């Protein structure tokens, strides 16, 4: 006997306390195991899309598709550059003025019509209408300037064509 204590009873009490602690730990482990299982189910559910595939594989597919689209986008930009370079040689700026060439004739039957390409090259076509006859004149335009004398109406038509806002801008590549 140690200090008046019965040793078998102390061992039994200590074993009972240790056993109780082990049972409590076992219960706690079971509770934690259930929580981990619930979290795992939620994680698996969250990481799947509507078809059941994992988000990781879906992201992998999307990245591969985006890389393919980048190549197509580069091809579109190159094609657009080619089209714009061709369009610089096509008529795309227009100026038009109607007027009365003579005082005694109404209805603005005379006109000046200017057509320019992207480099401001083109022609000015003018028609002067009279009661007995009508004349048509064509004058070349080079770099926005006419090499021949122009009437006020032809100059106005040329200015209208030069400030024409129907030009096409390239989409900027980012």
UniProtKB/TrEMBL annotation:
Superkingdom to which the source organism belongs: Bacteria
Pfam families on file: DUF4446 (PF14584)
InterPro entries in alphabetical order: DUF4446
Keyword tags: Membrane, Transmembrane, Transmembrane helix
Bilayer-spanning residue ranges: 13-32
Name the record gives this protein: DUF4446 domain-containing protein
Annotated organism of origin: Megasphaera cerevisiae DSM 20462
Upper lineage: Bacteria, Bacillati, Bacillota, Negativicutes, Veillonellales
């Amino acid at each position: 006997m140690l200090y008046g204590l019965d040793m078998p009873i102390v061992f039994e009490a200590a074993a009972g306390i240790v056993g109780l602690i082990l049972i409590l730990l076992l219960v706690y482990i079971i509770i934690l195991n259930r929580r981990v299982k619930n979290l795992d189910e939620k994680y698996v559910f969250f990481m799947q899309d509507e078809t059941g595939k994992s988000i990781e594989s879906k992201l992998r597919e999307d990245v591969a598709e985006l890389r393919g689209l980048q190549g197509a986008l580069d091809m579109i930009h190159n094609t657009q550059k080619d089209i714009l370079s061709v369009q610089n040689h096509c008529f795309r700026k227009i100026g038009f003025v109607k007027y009365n060439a003579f005082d005694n004739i109404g209805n603005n039957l005379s006109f000046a019509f200017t057509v320019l390409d992207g480099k401001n090259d083109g022609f000015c076509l003018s028609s002067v209408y009279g009661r007995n006859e009508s004349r048509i004149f064509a004058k070349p335009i080079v770099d926005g300037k006419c090499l021949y004398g122009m009437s006020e109406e032809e100059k106005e038509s040329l200015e209208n064509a030069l400030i024409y806002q129907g030009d096409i801008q390239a989409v900027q590549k980012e």
